[in-house]
């Protein structure tokens, strides 16, 4: 089974999750692509599309990619993962990213976690990440970490579950 993992990223976390997923799929024929790298979906049995969330929206590059490749994605198996800061909104973000037919036919749509490490970002993005991070870490009444929010991390368990679903789909 040939699997393509196709991601776009700003801070590198979506790529890192793609790499971890590829490692979990070891033994399979897996290729990892940046969305802007040349590839042909018709060469693959499964496409896994990864994208980050920015300003409550799926990355624009990913929305465009999914729209442009909708027809091909419907002819093979597809799965989708996102990286974000607020996992509770993952389904809302997925519905924005995917046309109904892809949402309904996906092998899996999941959140693999995220990172709010300012060192991963530059310029405006770094400022936003620092501000959200300090809201989470210092936003409690006593200046303590809020107990209703936590800094996101990469969710290894969700990566394993996604890998298992892909392997079972053969
Ligand atoms: C400018 C900016 C805006 C963001 N907005 C959101 C958001 O609205 N919701 C959310 O859950 N995460 C948000 N995040 C967090 C990112 O989704 C998270 O840092 C993710 O790990 C980024 O993935 P990447 O490193 O692959 O770009 C935002 C991050 C940045 C830099």
The succession of helices and strands, N to C, reads EHEEEHHEHHEHH
Helical content, roughly?
40-55%
Largest sheet: 6 strands, mixed
Task: Please state the average pLDDT score.
Answer: 94
Amount of beta strand = 15-25%
Distance between the termini: 7 Å
Into how many domains do the coordinates divide? 2
Q: The CATH topology of the largest domain is what? A: Rossmann fold
CATH-derived architecture of the largest domain: 3-Layer(aba) Sandwich
Q: Compute the gyration radius: what is it? A: 16 Å
Q: CATH H-level name of the largest domain... which superfamily? A: Flavodoxin domain
Count of extended strands: 6
- CATH class of the largest domain equals Alpha Beta
Report the uncertain regions.
none
Structural shape? globular
Bound molecules: flavin mononucleotide
Count the DSSP helices: 7
Structural class by secondary-structure content: alpha/beta
